[in-house]
């Protein structure tokens, strides 16, 4: 067993203790890129311009409601280094009437984990595909302005290029309890690109 690391093994939970995150409701979700790296594109004149990775992140989020029949997506936006969304759980799944068993695969956390895994897989597949088309001699990278660029690499280094982190370990969540809160958060998400320079995740 690895040595105990208090910074690693004693992280403070940011979830609401005792709350059932599989129950019906609206949730405001924010997921940040690892080290808040600008991986998904850039903001130009108040408009988010997605690169290839950003398009994958957006497509996979839209796919969430296609693979989960109890999930409805509301406002969302992919930003250069983070992602905001309002997600609705329309009804609980995985419960029985006798034991009231809560399936951990139906919680908000499980939805986020599934999304992260799918995004990472598709981005890595995309990088591998680029390498194969280029006979294993190039790899796609993101430069400081959020643009895609190609860098020559040796074939043996290709797998190492896929070991980068995309998402930070945790995520931020807020339970939406009123129509006023819903409208305020929806407006915040819609206008996030226009307020990019003042964004706390910048």
From TrEMBL:
Q: Which InterPro entries match?
A: RAYT_transposase, Transposase_17, Transposase_17_sf
Cited SMART domains = Y1_Tnp (SM01321)
User: Which Gene3D superfamilies does its entry note?
Assistant: Transposase IS200-like (3.30.70.1290)
Q: Where does the Transposase IS200-like domain lie?
A: 22-192
Q: What's the protein called, per UniProt?
A: Transposase IS200-like domain-containing protein
